[in-house]
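ZP: hey, is the S-adenosylmethionine complex queued? I don't see it on the tracker
AM: it wasn't, my bad. submitting now with these inputs:
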Amino acid sequence: MVNASAPSGHAALMDEVYRGQRHIYDFTRKYYLFGRDTLIKGLAAQPGMRVLEIACGTGRNLATIGKVWPGVRLYGLDISAEMLKSARAAVGAEARLGQGDACSFDAAALLGEPQFDRIVLSYSLSMIPDWQGALDHAASLLAPGGTLHVVDFGDLAGLPRPLAGLLRAWLAKFHVAPRDDMSTVAGRIAAAHDLLLTSTRGPLGYFQLHVLAAK
Ligand SMILES: C[S@@+](CC[C@H](N)C(=O)[O-])C[C@H]1O[C@@H](n2cnc3c(N)ncnc32)[C@H](O)[C@@H]1O
């Protein structure tokens, strides 16, 4: 694994959040990070394709992608050295992992590839302060014909209002903020990169899924 630089303030915060949590992350998050497997099924990846998850966390998604789409080449990027320890254990030696900031990492230097055929951002934009910068950077890394897939908390509009409020308050304790304007921002970024945007909403608005596809 390549370590790009000394931990920044946000990297240190993520390490603090996940140092202990990473050991129970996969078990607990399956009960509330919905839509991840829907995203993975929609990747339609072919053997040999380069698949990158930005902010890959424990590597749970990458490991699943490797099973669902055998023969793909796996790449993971995260700002937290702690999370990357779990990711390395989950994905094995073949996947290439790097530590860096989703908003600005140098893909060629960290991961040995300048572009990717499939890029995934799963429940990470809600934790990245400059999430619009991260989405824009991801779009800039798409190979010709590539697709960028995003899943994250939705507007929660179908939940009873007090429940949605409680959920937002609880998520905020973990530095998570649902991005209510993600569809609008994704549309702007898709237009800027000449990509086609398809957006869907999970039941009750719990999650939102966006695919930005090269034309
Ligand atoms: C809620 S976890 C999601 C992990 C994984 N994508 C999943 O779906 O299970 C959020 C991840 O984003 C990472 N992260 C937060 N800010 C980041 C940034 N600026 N650059 C890269 N990774 C970041 C955290 O370290 C953490 O691993």
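AM: back. The domain at 2-214 is CATH 3.40.50.150 (Rossmann fold).
ZP: great, adding it to the tracker
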